[in-house]
From TrEMBL:
This is 2EXR domain-containing protein. It comes from Viridothelium virens (Speckled blister lichen). Residues 23-153 form the 2EXR domain. It comes from the Eukaryota.
Length: 413
């Protein structure tokens, strides 16, 4: 197998731990020690994308009964509404669910919320010729195993919002034996502006109470500001000549695998490239404004503010280039480099005027380049500046040199 150049070698394998490590005398350990080891291996974060959508043609899970009138196996009231929650399924579930009966019981206990859902076959999504939403691509009816304390739900919207967000949040709590539900939420522009922020009235009393309780008890929110143009930046190619020509080697590359290890500080020398962080979404500060409006409209006065962070990452716009393991990461990086060189030739006059040469980076510059990371950055939301001014501009550039980011490294097979 051809070895990639040093500047294309991802750092993930040197920082992420593996579930495949073996310890021969494990079975001879006392049961309580084995259980603690199983549980410790499960204690990792996941960023799980969930698309909620109305399904008018589906029969109600409550057998035709009116919403919020039936109970689940935990004897808790469920919404019974006709909606689907489609979860991106690639490498979603822990391997411990299928190793031994002991490890499975430990995993089922750790992921204590077992809520009905549809699982999206992500590899089909990658290999398709089109770019279907999660809902329109093939999905199978299954169970979503969820841990409120460790998992972040990236709630995205498909179709009219209506009650879908409220119903799903209610059911997450109804299927939790501890009655906790959602603690950690991630939202992009559509999920917030067209989904959560659009909820202005809830008729059913149990749904309203559950919705208010969830917003009151949320611990963390991640505002998703990923970009399709955040690394190889050719001004004319993205519609902004003022952006010039540059390659941001530091910006992480988003994977579609949910599990990640969080490093409290990006260990790479990323400082010089923090001055030009490009997002293809609207200003994430607008999402914070919406959040404050949402709390006011529902009369929620939190004792402590929710922890807010902003996610920056490069997200490939082409499904065939999505990253889910080391092989696909290497493929994307190689194709990204080839496309970057081709873009410099295509915009050769502009490139020469900005950089003075083609290619922009020669062997000496590439030898000093920051190695790529598969995952995402997290910055404190307040580091993006005050919540004022024109916050709807697309392809927003942020100078984050005064705030070093956390680095979430995706677990790749």
């Amino acid at each position: 197998m051809t070895t990639l150049p040093q500047h294309l070698q991802i750092i993930n394998s040197s920082h992420c731990h593996s579930e495949d490590a073996k310890f021969s005398p494990f079975s001879k350990l006392p049961p309580e020690i084995r259980l603690r080891i199983w549980t410790h291996s499960l204690e990792r974060h996941r960023l799980v994308e969930v698309e909620v959508a109305i399904e008018e043609d589906l029969p109600s899970d409550s057998g035709g009964a009116r919403p919020y009138s039936t109970q689940n196996a935990l004897n808790k009231l469920i919404s019974g509404r006709n909606y689907t929650a489609t979860v991106q399924a690639l490498q979603l579930n822990s391997k411990l669910l299928r190793v031994t009966s002991e490890s499975r019981n430990a995993a089922l206990s750790f992921y204590r919320v077992h809520i009905p859902c549809h699982l999206q076959a992500s590899k089909e999504r990658i290999q398709g010729n089109a770019a279907p939403s999660m809902r329109t691509a093939k999905a199978t009816k299954s169970i979503f195993y969820f841990n409120p304390e460790y998992d972040f739900i990236h709630l995205s919207k498909q179709g009219p919002a209506k009650h879908t967000f409220v119903d799903f949040l209610h059911d997450l709590k109804a299927y939790d034996p501890r009655d906790v539900g959602l603690l950690n939420l991630a939202l992009d522009t559509n999920g917030m502006s067209l989904g959560l922020h659009a909820v202005n009235e809830v008729s059913e009393a149990p749904a309203k109470a559950s919705f208010i309780d969830t917003l009151s008890r949320l611990q963390e929110i991640i505002w998703v500001a990923e970009s399709h143009t955040g690394r190889a930046i050719m001004g004319p190619g993205v519609g902004f000549y003022s952006f010039g020509v540059r390659f941001n080697h530091s910006m992480p590359i988003k994977a579609i695998t949910p599990s990640f290890d969080l490093l409290r500080r990006d260990p790479r020398p990323v400082g010089p490239e923090l001055d030009f962080i490009l997002t293809g979404s609207s200003d994430p500060r607008q999402l914070r404004v919406y959040w404050q409006e949402l709390l006011r409209s529902w009369g929620i006065r939190r004792a402590l503010p929710v922890r807010e962070r902003v996610l920056f990452a490069y997200d490939s716009p082409v499904y065939q280039q999505q990253v889910y393991d080391t092989k696909t990461a290497n493929k994307l990086l190689t194709e990204e480099q080839d496309h970057w060189l081709a873009s410099q030739q295509h915009w050769h006059r502009f490139t020469i005027s900005c950089a003075g040469k083609i290619p922009v980076e020669g062997p000496e510059e590439l030898a000093k380049a920051v190695k790529p990371a598969i995952g995402f950055w997290l910055f404190p939301a307040e580091a993006l500046g005050p919540l004022e001014g024109e916050l709807w501009h697309m392809k927003k550039v942020f100078d984050m040199t005064n705030c070093w980011p956390e680095l979430a490294l995706s677990n790749l097979s």
